[in-house]
Amino acid sequence: MSTTTVTKSPAETGGPGRAPARRAPVAEGRIGLRGNLRHIGALARRNALQIKQDPESMFDAVLMPIIFILLFVYVFGGAIAGKGNNEVYVNYVTPGLMAMMGMNIAMAVGVGINDDFKKGVMDRFRTMPIARSSVLIAKIVVEVGRMLIATAILLGMGFLLGMEIHTSVLHLFAAIGLSMVFGASLMWIFILLGLTLKTAQAVQGMAMIVLMPLQFGSSIFAPPTSMPDWLKAFTDYNPLSNLADAARNLINGGPVAHSVWMTLGWALAITAVTAPLAVTKFRKKT
């Protein structure tokens, strides 16, 4: 039996008198923009398919705007705008409720994140070679879609009840876009709560503590002119008031520059503070 000897070429051994060349280690944890977007798209599709398999998860986005606008227009509209002036109140409260929709949808994000960790879903994601932020951003992308559906239903009900656009359709789209931007920034707060608190019930309880003063201490439901001075001062700086005033003036006409810039400033500040904290907490959560 003959024996064949295999000899390595100088290119494989690094040349005469030199040690064999080693392959450069592959960089770990570095994912380019294209890869990151691909991961976000795949995870967003996975979250959307979950909604398709569980249509009941859309009940809040579908029913909440209908219940709220009917409740406030027919229960409080006469008392606030005067008897027989429900159509006037519809034009006032509907843009304000756009801000309220964002907060309520954002609360559901925190509860969902907490529940996903309990089920072990997030642990599987953290073992994959994907950017940690892509998991959270994909969640926000899908929830913004749910927010768009809720806003569309809210506006549809508003038009049925007599709401009119006194500016233009472009101004209406600007109001919707502003609501989406601010709502997405709020989601980072509730994602951070969902990652920090131990149970979904605790997330809901803490969310209500945050939601109630912001919603009812704002200009969403009534003009703040009749409020006491201390509450009016809080209302003036309340980000929900800024968003409600911006959406209202974009649809009904009026000065928008201050309220729009204040809303965008709040959205940027909230995202800049809470998004890095949420991603860091997601990496380290046990």
Automatic annotation (TrEMBL):
Domain of life: Bacteria
Biased composition (Low complexity): 10-23
Membrane-spanning segments: 61-80, 92-114, 135-160, 172-195, 202-222, 260-279
Segments of this protein annotated with the region Disordered: 1-23
Subcellular location: Cell membrane; Membrane
InterPro entries attached to this UniProt entry: ABC2_TM, ABC2_TM_bact-type, ABC_2_transport, Nod_factor_ABC_transporter
Keyword set, alphabetical order: Antibiotic resistance, Cell membrane, Membrane, Transmembrane, Transmembrane helix, Transport
UniProt topology in membrane: Multi-pass membrane protein
Similarity annotation: Belongs to the ABC-2 integral membrane protein family.
Protein name, per record: Transport permease protein
Species the sequence originates in: Streptomyces exfoliatus
Organism placement in taxonomy: Bacteria, Bacillati, Actinomycetota, Actinomycetes, Kitasatosporales
